[in-house]
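Folds abound. A case:
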Amino acid sequence: MAVSTTPAYLYLRIAAEWAERIDSGELRHGDPLPTRAQLQDAYDCSSTVINNALNLLQQGGYLETAARRGTFVYRPKRYVLPMYVLEADDRGRDAFTDAITAQGGRPFQNIRVETITGTPEIRAALGLGDDEAGLVLARRRMRSIDDIPYCITDSFFPFDLVKGTAIADPADIARGGRHVLRELGYEMVRHDDTIGGGGPRQREIAELNIAGGLSMIRHDRISHTADGRPIRLMCSSFPSDRWTLTYEVEK
C-alpha cells in the first residue's frame, strides 16, 4: 500500500526515499544534501515536514550536520566479514585483522581484560553451573577501522582455562586467540552461532558513537572442542550500516 502524502505521513516517504538512495550507493559518504529550502520546494511541503524527515534520517545514522556547512551523507565504508571461515584457517595470524586489511582497511583494537563471575547466560554458555565457583575471564575489544569505531567484541572464557596466558593479557594477540587455545590443547572444532538484531544499547551508542535509531546486528558464538566442551563465548555488536556478514556452508 502506498504511503499517504498527507503532511502527517509525507515526512516518512521523504525519509524512506533518501534512505533508499543512500543504501543503494547512489549517494556516498560525504555527499551534501540539498538545503532545507530546496527540499521544501522540491516536495512542495512545509518546513516542518522536511525537518521531521531529516531528523528521522539523522536518528537512523544516515546523516551528519556540520555547523555552517550543511547536512551530509554519513555512510562509512561497508566491510565484509566471513563469520565462519574466520575460524577455519591455519595462518597463525588474527583472522579479523587479515580480513579487514585485505579490503584496504587499517584495523585497530582497544582491549581490556577483567575477571568476572559472569551472568547466568554467560555461565550457561561456558558450561559453568550457577552453584560453581569457577570465574570467567572477559576479554573486551572495541574494534576500529581507519580510526572509526566499527564493532564491539567481547569474548568470555573459563578463567582456569586461560589464566596466565596471552588471552589474559590486555594486549593484541597477533596470531589470534584461537591459536593460543590450540597451543594449550583446546582446539575449537565446532561453533554454535546465534544472530539477532535491534536498536543500539547504551554501551554501543557510547563506544561506537552511533545514532540512537541505527539498527544493530548481534552475533553470539559458542565454540567447542572435539569432546564437546564449550571454551569460548564470543559476543559481537555490529552497526548495520557498515557490515555485511557472510557464511560458507558445505554440504
Notes: The chain has a mean pLDDT of 91.
